[in-house]
């Protein structure tokens, strides 16, 4: 029996009027709920937390695709059928929302909380000892992030450490939102131009970093033997910023193929330190029965919730492409069947 400990760092970046910059989340006043609802989708296969008193359990996105959280849910179900045990560790970094894991389909779920600015303390007191326990017991882990607005701060850091022309759009292609995002980054660049090129100069100020960056840097300051990250630009940034001061012996980061389709992402990947292994899954979604999943291959959704790392983990543990895609199809099928059923009922009622 193999235990996989899936650790998700949930947060919202400190950006004023974030709903005007990001397409993720549910809009003004509701952005904090997005990471929580995605974690519920991973654990339960549906989002339980209400939005303004109303239930919106579906993983279907406005562009017709599905959130990567439901695909992670499908992968975990396939791994459990293979004999794995899945334990999810939910780290609510500065989030007030309490996840509702009613209908949990994993083996165990543990939730931790901290206030904004206290991420390092939570990591040092809770996560690092837990990772040591897992290593002693031969358990495996993946450390993912589920954040809103994090690419803004990842772009800030990567422009500082690598090239000031680097750009990461994140969740939106809207020109107005991208213009506002660029303005926010330019303001941050002006405020931080006096800072030395040291990670702690940014993590010491909650205006110059986001909770995920601060948590990752605290992890990289530890003397753990190995840390396995899951994610794209938001994870690349702290690894690169900490490369001269990290005490972790080995670091791995896994992400999707689509992240590296962008030239700027390829540039950043080349800048990862020598002790960091980059892992990419091979599976392709073209054979899916659902257009909503095939849309990933066209770049409608690039990364999220550790999807790339979960796919790569499943591949390393023997799941074939056909099995993986079938698990994704099973995860989303009920939602499209429900949608079709509702459409049919509506057509019937209007006859």
TrEMBL record:
Annotated InterPro entries: Nict_dMeBzImd_PRibTrfase_arc (IPR002805), Nict_dMeBzImd_PRibTrfase_sf (IPR036087)
Superkingdom of origin organism: Bacteria
Entry protein name: 1-aminocyclopropane-1-carboxylate deaminase
Organism encoding this protein: Vibrio algarum
């Amino acid at each position: 029996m193999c235990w996989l400990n899936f650790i998700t760092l949930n947060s919202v970046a400190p950006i004023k009027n974030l709903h005007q910059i990001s397409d993720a989340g549910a809009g003004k006043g509701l952005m904090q709920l997005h990471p929580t609802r995605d974690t519920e989708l991973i654990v339960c296969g549906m989002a339980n937390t209400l939005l303004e008193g109303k239930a919106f359990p579906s993983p279907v996105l406005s562009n017709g695709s599905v959130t990567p959280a439901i695909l992670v849910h499908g992968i975990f179900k396939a791994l459990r059928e293979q004999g794995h045990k899945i334990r999810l560790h939910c780290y609510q970094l500065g989030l007030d929302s309490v996840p509702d894991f009613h209908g949990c389909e994993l083996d165990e779920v543990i939730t931790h909380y901290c206030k904004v600015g206290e991420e390092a303390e939570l990591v040092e007191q809770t996560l690092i000892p837990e990772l040591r326990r897992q290593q002693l017991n031969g358990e495996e882990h993946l450390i993912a992030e589920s954040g809103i607005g994090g690419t803004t701060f990842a772009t800030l850091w990567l422009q500082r450490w690598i090239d000031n022309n680097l750009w990461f759009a994140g969740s939106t292609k809207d020109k107005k939102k991208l213009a506002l995002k660029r303005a926010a980054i330019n303001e941050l660049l002006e405020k931080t131009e006096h800072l030395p090129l040291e990670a702690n100069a940014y993590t010491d100020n909650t205006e110059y970093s986001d909770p995920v960056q601060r948590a990752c840097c605290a992890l990289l300051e530890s003397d753990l033997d190995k840390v396995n990250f899951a994610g794209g630009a938001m994870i690349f940034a702290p690894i690169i910023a900490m490369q001269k001061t990290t005490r972790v012996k080995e670091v791995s980061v896994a992400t999707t193929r689509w992240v590296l389709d962008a030239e700027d992402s390829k540039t950043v990947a080349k800048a990862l330190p020598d002790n960091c292994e980059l892992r990419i899954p091979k599976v392709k979604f073209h054979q899916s029965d659902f257009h909503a999943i095939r849309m990933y291959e066209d770049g409608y959704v690039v990364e999220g919730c550790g999807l790339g790392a979960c796919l790569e983990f499943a591949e390393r543990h023997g799941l074939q492409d056909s099995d993986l895609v079938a698990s994704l199809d099973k995860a989303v099928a009920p939602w499209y069947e429900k949608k079709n059923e509702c459409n049919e009922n509506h057509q019937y009622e209007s006859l």
